[in-house]
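Structure tokens please, single chain.
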Amino acid sequence: MNASLRPLAFDDLQIGFPVVQAALSGYSDWPMRMLARRFGASYTVCEVMLDQFLLAVKERKRTQHFLHNTADEQPVGGQLMGAEPRQFAAGAQRLVQAGFGVVDINFGCPVKKVLGRCRGGFHLGQPDVAIEIVQRTRDATPPSIPVTLKMRRGVDDSNASRDRFFEILDGAFAAGAAAVTVHGRTVEQRYRGPSNWNFLKQVKQHLGERTVLGSGDLFTAQDCLDMMAQTGVDGVTVARGAIGNPWIFQQARALWRGEPLPPPPTLHQQRDVILEHLTMARQMHGERCGLLMRKFAIKYSALHPRHAIVRDDFARARTEQEWDAVLEKHYSADLPGQYPSLEIHQTNNGCA
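Here you go.
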């Protein structure tokens, strides 16, 4: 084990291995989280949910996947987003009732529609409201359930934005936050340009022993170890780099133990995991699973040596028979796989 890396914890909740799966809108549902856990992620976060949605949602087949979690994936975090502090508190209580072991507050989403409704990264521009949200959420959540938050490094690169970031950061921990995840891009930057890892180092130095996780540009197992080594953060959250690639956690664990980087999964190993994902998606989403799985299959195809052709065939698949045909055509021979290229990874996939 790398002696410089310590097991991760949120207050008294022991997480362990410090490479975890981030919340991803439209992606990090129960099947994706379970595969991440099976391949070594010690903690996962469900896709972000609106406080208003949580207060109104019923236990229907079409919406049950949002709150679905199981005992064998604990600890799992529920991520919360909204505009009004009181509704955050009520939304947090609903997440706890549903069985989530951590409540994570989203102050980072840079999507225009979200910002226009005073949610996500919008709160980085109003410290008083952001701190009130954390305080009300902490007060409404049982003491045994950690409250964490996700932030970007500010609304923009101005000094005023930086000052507001640190005002919110300090206020959040004073209100009882257990940890913070910081993405190295600004809200204005969205997903363009490199993530500023040096800022993560500054945040960790500012907070000292308090728990900081880093996010941004983590597309390989080595990236995860490099971020912790270069910035001193206590852990990292893998977002886009984990879609269609749960093996990234297995690979990061090997590096954490001081072992060589494992080879990419063979085509048969890929096929078996795609089929397992499809089975769980069918269990969770019913007949809609084929359509919902296409976005994952396109990402799984990045590990295939004939990536472009496989991607296009998956994109056209609609029925179970068409899925079987793609797998038979491209995964029947057990050939070596490949690591996904950086270009394949660098596409926008939800709030992360």
